[in-house]
Amino acid sequence: MKKIRKWWNNRILNNFILLFISFILLELIFRLIDNLPILNVASIRIILFCVILSLFFGYIFSFLPRLINKIGNLIIILIYTIYGLAELGFHNYLGVYASISTNTQLGAVSSYLGDFLHSLKPSFYLLFLPFGLLLLYYIFLAKLFVLNLPKKKSSKLNIFLKTIPIWLILIFSALYYGTLKASFMQDQKESTTAYELFLKPTNSSLVIRNFGFINYSLLDIKEYFFPGKIINEIEINHDDLKSQTEISEHQTIANSLWLDLIAMETDKELNSLNHYFISQDIATTNDYTGLFSGKNLIVIMVESANDIIFEEEYYPNIARLTKNGYTFSNNYSPRNICSTGNNEMSSMISLYSINNNCTANVYQTNTYFESIFNLFNNEGYITNSFHDYYDWYYNRKIIHTNMGSKTYYDAIDLELPFSYNYGAYNTWASDELLMVKYLEVLDSEIKEEPFMSFITTVSSHQPYNSSEFGDMYMDLFPTTYSSELKRYMSKLKVVDNAIGILLDGLEARGILDDTVIVLFGDHYPYAIDQADLNLALDYDVSLDNNADQVPLIIYNSQIDPEEFFNYTSYIDILPTIANLFDLDYDSRLYMGNDILSDDYNSLVIFNDGSWKNEYAFYNASTGFVNYYTQKVYSDEEILAINQEVRLKLEMSSLAIRKNYFSYLESSLNSLTTSET
Hints:
By secondary structure, the protein is α/β, with parallel strands linked by helices. It has helices spanning about 1-10, 10-35, 40-60, 65-95, 105-110, 115-120, 130-140, 155-180, 195-200, 205-210, 215-225, 240-245, 255-265, 270-280, 315-325, 340-350, 360, 370-380, 395-405, 430-445, 470, 485-510, 530-535, 575-580, 635-655, 660-675, and strands at about 295-300, 325-330, 380-385, 405-410, 450-455, 515-520, 550-555, 560-570, 605, 610, 615-620, 625. Helix 2 (about 10-35) packs antiparallel against helix 3.
């Protein structure tokens, strides 16, 4: 026993073992709770990192007084416990893991803290187990192993022995680096290698799956201060593009001009984008091309709307839209760090937002000549946009203006009553009043020209506690529903009333037949327990990202209803509208596609690289595939889809970071001027 105590009395070894066990337990519990794979090659990399981290902190703390040493170990484990709890909460609440890159939104989202804490599952608190065990050890067991040994005189041997942890850190770091490169340590279905994820750890789900949440925290910090660069080398056949001398339908940029730009450009990232976009297929016309040519357009993004809104008994005005509209039954609005602002932006420009930040705000000064507003501006439409809150969460006055909206109206401009205090009884403005004010703007500003408006609602926003709109229609809904669910559905009733006001107002003005309404949801209602949502839906929202399924309707009083079953998302809205209105646009500039096209690629891409279609759901966080039919993809087919998904997400992110479309517009204009 004395030998064991003497061995255990070595401070470095003691620290290492205690920290290593704690780190491994944290990672294991985290992965079990979040259904991440455990027995795979990535576990080797995670174990190696836990060894390195334990050696590092164990060595550093060994030089501190014994009590401070213990406190240091406890603090490190507590920090990672709280961090892990927060990441589990974010993943459960928003569908993505948090990143330091979202720090700009902390002030705005702090108002959601109560809702966020309420959403934490009891199982998440199992993460405190390693900290609790370590604390109990220090209180009750550590003193049993303490020996008051005389201090040894310094000698060359003792000095060398103290450097062993440093050598071990170097050795294990080399082994760790080897796991980034070794082929057997890669997921053969993933298009992103471990080394590429290490250099550019922006896909949090893939990073946590391959490196663990503890390592992700450090890689995320590294990426924030020292961003990595990965340039996708995209090869194009210049001869084929040169041979296409004529500009076809749904193409506005001549290949010859674009190729001249590529030849002149020295920035590798910009040229990577040039190569990617010029190589995309040009959309063809179809039976729906120009169906709404010359008509007015109103796009409505409904706050927190999911498929509950299709219940005709409760929402008759939405039913009016579906009875003379195209309904897309498998439409999704994938969650991300800032779903409302980012998904609104994506619907306007058909680019995916950046995985780990509030893209709409961070890059609010970007301009997009191919945005929905600018396409209609080019056709002589009057464009405007509306939202019944103020610029607390998203700087829409700047964002929408740079998107091309000629006039943006918020709740202050429209003189709508609302509360600045989140969670107050009457926090949000009334969508019903918003539509009244919108119709007044039409009366005062729209004359003979066609108009295009983008409206973002707010009344159905969380929280779903007692509130003016939450209590207003609670008695309409089944008593078996939770109070939160009934209040949510009550708020949706306000939205439905607003749609009725809009339809009646357009009809009274004699312009309903000449107006198209596109309605979709920005994201699912975060603050409602998924088990409660299942009571009101005919599918399980907890499976295969079903929670992100939201309505998409394209309405005009003169068309017959149709239901479409392709898998779609907000990324496809703009190219679909552009074709329906026969606008002058280049389809290669969009990540989405015309949903109504015969060759539409039925696929929804989620923020973390997961994807879904009628055959399967691929979960990028776990690497597992869930099939819905007899069709089974080979590993090569999954890899091909993953490569397509990765390129779309990475090229979108790079285009936004580089303000690519501003560059493209000015560069092409300069080339055109010089040629003339």
